[in-house]
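Appendix C reproduces, verbatim, an entry submitted by the partner laboratory led by Prof. M.T., so that reviewers can inspect both the input and the predicted structure.
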Amino acid sequence: MSPPPSRRLDRVLAVGLALFTIAEVNYPQLSRQGELAVFAGVGLVLCFLRVPAWRGRPGLRGLRWLDRGLAAASALTCGYVLVQSEPLFERWWSGAASLGDRAGAETRLDLVVGGVGLILVLEATRRTLGPALPLLAVAFLAYAHLGPSLPGWLFPHRGYGAERIVAQTFLHSQG
């Protein structure tokens, strides 16, 4: 008996991700941002297809459409970063510059895609590891943004704009 189509897709994606990683480590073809976009994209898609939104609650199985939607959003956001990073797709670059060359001058679409991608990463982390790590990450993101509003004696920090936080955590290779 063969596995259902969804399990076959999971296996193909998992094996493809492993082979991509081995090939890209040994014979790099993509930029660092492109590599990370493919790895994150396939990893997020696998996560959303394999780990339901609310494990242990069989009454909520009807929400599998949400899981599939998040998987599609993951593919789109990471695909966008891949297309905007690789010279192969140069004709589709915003402003005739790659995402790495636009650092600090990201377009509105870049920032929207990056914000969605950041939320997807936090949700995938919640699904796989529980709420503690995503809550800690949100606390650090809030600190990065709200640092100047905190008392100077507590944790002095000049703060960063939402644009810079999104760009550094999702759009560029530092995140």
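The mean pLDDT is 89. Additional entries are available on request from the coordinating office.
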